[in-house]
């Protein structure tokens, strides 16, 4: 186990850290889904950007969570990667 992983496990015991980490889970999930779609399409960020008619740096910012994408941007990303965009709302217990 890496030192970072060990620290993360330790910090998750702290309620404040865990709450902040959990709050970012949705953003991590979106970033992961975008990167997975691009990887499954065997495409580079530049190739996705070209199909989206945008810049590679914008695709990088989308994938890193640095920008909040619009539904239109997500649709264009999905189309560029040959993916289907689905959005769901789930009840929290």
TrEMBL record:
Pfam families attached to this UniProt entry: HTH_3
SMART domains to which the protein is assigned, alphabetical: HTH_XRE (SM00530)
Molecular function (Gene Ontology), one example: DNA binding
Domain HTH cro/C1-type, first and last residues per copy: 34-88
InterPro entries found in the cross-reference section: Cro/C1-type_HTH, Lambda_DNA-bd_dom_sf
Superkingdom of origin organism: Bacteria
Annotated protein name in UniProt: Helix-turn-helix transcriptional regulator
Species the sequence originates in: Palleronia caenipelagi
């Amino acid at each position: 186990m890496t030192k970072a992983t060990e620290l993360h496990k330790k910090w998750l015991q702290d309620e404040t850290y865990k709450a902040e980490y959990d709050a970012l889970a949705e953003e991590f999930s979106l970033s992961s889904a975008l990167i997975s779609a691009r990887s499954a399409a065997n495409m580079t960020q530049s190739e996705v950007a070209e199909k989206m008619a945008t810049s590679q740096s914008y695709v990088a910012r989308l994938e890193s969570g640095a920008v909040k994408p619009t539904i239109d941007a997500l649709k264009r990303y999905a189309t560029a990667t040959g993916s289907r965009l689905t959005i769901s709302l789930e009840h929290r217990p």
